Amino acid sequence: MTELEEKIKAKIPGPDTGIEIKHSLCAICSPGHHCGVDCYVKDGKIIRVEGTPEHPYNHGHLCTKGSALRNAVYREDRINPPLRRVGQRGEGKFEPISWDEAYQTIAQKLNEVKEQYGPNSVAFLSGYCKWYRPILHRFAHVFGSVNFGTDDSTCSAAMVIANKVTAGTGAGPDMAHANTFLGWNFDGYYSAHLSVLGVQKLKERGGKVIIIDIRQTPASRNLADIFLQINPGTDGALALGMAKLIIDNGWADMDYVEKYTYGFEQYKALADQYPLDKVARITGLDPNDIYEATKLYATNGPACTNFSASALVHHINGFNSYRAIFCLTALTGNFDRAGGNVPNPATYLHKPAGFKMREHEFRSDRYPGGVERIGAERFPLWNAQFDELQGMDLLRQLEEDKPYPVRAIFALGMNAKMYPQTDDLLRAMKDKLDFFVDTDVYMTMTAKYADIVLPACTSVERSELKAYQGGYLFYTKPAIQPLYESRSDVDILCDLARLMNLDDEYLQKGYEASLDWMMEGCGLTVADLKKSDLPVKVPAAKWPAEPGKCLRDGFKTPTGKFEFYSTAIAAIDPKYGLDPLPSYYDSLADQNDEQTRENYPFYLCTGARLAHAIHSRAHETPWLRSLRPEPTCEINPEDGKRLGLKEGGSVELYSPYGSIRVKVKYTHKIKPGVIMMLHGYTEANVNLLIGRDHLDPYSGFPGFKGMRCNIRNVQEG
Ligand SMILES: Nc1nc2c(c(=O)[nH]1)N[C@H]1C(S)=C(S)[C@@H](COP(=O)(O)OP(=O)(O)OC[C@H]3O[C@@H](n4cnc5c(=O)[nH]c(N)nc54)[C@H](O)[C@@H]3O)O[C@H]1N2
Ligand SMILES: Nc1nc2c(c(=O)[nH]1)N[C@H]1C(S)=C(S)[C@@H](COP(=O)(O)OP(=O)(O)OC[C@H]3O[C@@H](n4cnc5c(=O)[nH]c(N)nc54)[C@H](O)[C@@H]3O)O[C@H]1N2
Ligand SMILES: [Mo]
């Protein structure tokens, strides 16, 4: 018996119990995580889930959501057989049909739209799941449509683009060698639990931690040496103010700046407009605290910085704020240096693992080109830098049919509640689409608008490829058979490719053949991975990433330097008014007229992460819902009392665009004037309050975390 088998056996509660432990992964949360899980299976059913102790990533740890995986798998709202709509769109009336019939209908309807309007009139959309993306993306292209889009329209892509147009690449914090950690909107306890360990180790070594957040968090409490509780949406001003302090006090690494950067003089001139007193006024911070934090960051190096896929870029000034912070890493000589921020490109599906896979080549290989993607005209920087449609322009194009009509949506896990003014989007989909198919695990509000609904299985019911840091690849095996008639998303796509006779060798052959193509050169095949029940070390992997490559070989930007002044932004038509420098403007710039200020005095921050929830997908999982049973907004007691809001009472939260009813909770963790609300609830969808045009002009991202709103009591009952 191998050591592993011994360990596994030791965990089985007694002989002859009929319980088997099967390794799988939890795909509830971010693709950057997906912890290894042990499913205890008896009679084909999962009776218990634990973290896999031998897993090289999570080493047995599980977060709140992962601990509820079993409950998520056996939810009562799982879609059972494929369904055909019989009532009105949105009504939720369906009849069961066979898979064959569902596939035939989809093939016929998509081809009809293609014939009548052209292939780009079919949009291929995905929600938060990443695992099937290269297959779906290629499917769209082979079908002939340029229109592939995902939650990247609101998540991470703004950061990716900002990185690209500044340094040609992103760069993660090198915690292991840093003396200081600048945790800008870092709260790993809620959003990435394993990331906290690195910060704890840094502290144990005597390292220092700065946390900058609008709310007090476990990170600000447990980790921070200096905590700056900043006014929301003002981070760009702080970063420019810090740049000025760094330059004026001689803390900048001028050798680095001269050798490796471009546009310093213009950047300095911009920073000069942000003296300490002005920055203190904008950010609501004490000037001494700003000074001390800046000094610590700039003089106690090497220093690394946290970057978030969402918090900052969910403001309409977020792209520039992000860039202003990013520029500090070069100003202090911490970019691409040990203990600073070190480039480490993603291996596969957002996860760096130290080797190269041909995921992007696979999906873009068949790009049909020609007509422009949705959002191309409105968001030219996005379009030039990112390989997807910008979904924040979907509603406009549905309504206006310009530059061409969109008449069908083929979606995997589409959540319309991800889109601002969701009700308008659903109305447009209802009125304008000839055909809408959605594939989901659960019967969602969005699926109720579909003409055909397909049941997808969960991660523990399928095989899936996953890369892990440290140089690992994992090909999972199903721990249980797919429930009901559900199928794996990738099998659905490849079945359809065959039925529609799409001209593509790999989609016709299936998921595993496609993966083998993407994995070529890494020294392993799917067949090799299948021999193991745990992640396998990849021979070609180099981990950890070595710093210094950009400094040695040049940056992948037009100038070959780190660009304070972005030449890629400068190349965009001036009529769009995009600034090549990371200039600061107000995050409520489009809502600052006197009347709106008066009627909507609060700053609404939506979706700041909490441990028990993730977007729309976890709210209906009973164990997780029980941790906060009612959709609840949070307000500082000073405001709550002034307005006579009763703690736990019902309130209406409203903006110029919409209103929801929720409970209210007092908290001292946020400043007066701020209201916080989680997103993703069907009965209290806060994105009804976010204006459809309240978008960052650089990225197209919605201002989810910066919107004017107001609050008032409502009668109970
Ligand atoms: N107000 C506000 N809105 C936000 C945010 C915010 O902070 N505030 N955050 C934004 C961010 S950063 C993101 S990433 C997006 C998230 O984007 P969303 O797409 O809203 O994410 P989810 O609701 O988690 O997932 C979408 C659907 O995928 C389904 N699903 C789960 N697993 C599978 C599967 O294996 N196959 C299939 N076919 N479907 C599956 C789920 O049931 C769900 O219906 O939300 C954005 N929206
Ligand atoms: N439990 C849980 N974990 C998740 C998710 C989830 O929904 N739930 N979503 C996953 C996804 S898709 C993403 S993109 C990541 C996001 O990961 P994070 O960016 O870490 O998530 P957030 O909690 O939105 O933001 C981090 C912090 O930024 C703060 N913040 C909000 N506005 C501002 C501001 O204007 N300035 C500053 N300085 N701070 C601000 C919030 O209070 C919060 O504490 O999380 C992932 N992990
Ligand atoms: Mo996200």
Q: What is the CATH-assigned architecture of the largest domain? A: 3-Layer(aba) Sandwich
Strand order of the largest sheet: 5-4-17-16-15-6-7
Radius of gyration: 25 Å
Structural class: alpha/beta
The total beta strand count reads 27
User: What is the helical fraction, as a range of percent?
Assistant: 25-40%
Percentage of β-strand residues: 15-25%
Shape: globular
- SS field, number of helical segments: 28
Overall mean pLDDT stands at 96
Account of the protein in words:
This protein is an alpha/beta fold and 717 residues long. It has 3 domains: 83-156 and 356-462 and 488-528, 3-Layer(aba) Sandwich (Rossmann fold); 171-342, Dimethylsulfoxide Reductase, domain 2 (3-Layer(aba) Sandwich), CATH 3.40.228.10; 589-713, Barwin-like endoglucanases. Helices cover 32% and strands 16% of the residues. It is built from 28 helices and 27 strands. The model has no long low-confidence stretch (mean pLDDT 96). The structure holds ligand MGD (2 copies) and molybdenum atom. Molybdenum atom binds at residues 155, 309-310.
